[in-house]
Design a protein that fits this description.
The protein is mostly helical. The protein has helices spanning about 1-35, 40-65, 65-75, 75-80, 85-110, 115-135, 140-145. The relative contact order is 0.16.
């Protein structure tokens, strides 16, 4: 089960990051061109939101079926914090990614509460961009490209 969920989590991450990048660029493009926020803009942002939430759910499943989780249960959190690999997979990656998904959700929620087109683009653009940077900062790159 672990390998299946890991593979799905990894491949879904490519789609999620791509869609977040598209949604962010779309928002900043709309902001710079001062265009009207259209249903297409809403749809792009919503698809990125949905993909990121599915990625989070896959991450939760992966976290609890991971051999790293079993190691943490046996060794304790003190040992996890001393080992950089365990700390990345069990603390840093999940925590930062939960924060990033929360920012995406906040950006989406705030855009719905405003009527101004530029404010909609701004709220989505900045929150999605910060989330994208956070997500990229905690990807275990060495394991991802193997």
């Amino acid at each position: 089960m672990y390998d299946s969920v890991l593979g799905l989590h990894s491949y879904w991450a490519y789609a999620t990051l791509g869609l977040l990048l598209i949604a962010t660029l779309n928002a900043f493009g709309g902001l710079s061109s001062k265009r009207v926020f259209t249903p297409k803009d809403r749809q792009i942002s919503m698809i990125a939101l949905i993909f990121s939430h599915i990625q989070l759910l896959l991450g939760f499943v992966l976290y609890f079926v991971s051999p790293y989780f079993e190691t943490a249960k046996q060794a304790g959190m003190g040992a996890v914090m001393k080992d950089s690999t365990l700390r990345l997979y069990l603390v840093e990656h999940p925590l930062i990614n939960i924060i990033a998904i929360a920012l995406i959700t906040i950006g989406w929620s705030k855009h719905k509460k405003t009527e101004d087109n530029q404010a909609k683009f701004k709220k989505i653009g900045y929150m999605y961009a910060i989330a994208l940077v956070l997500l990229l900062s905690r990807i275990p790159w060495s394991a991802w490209f193997n």
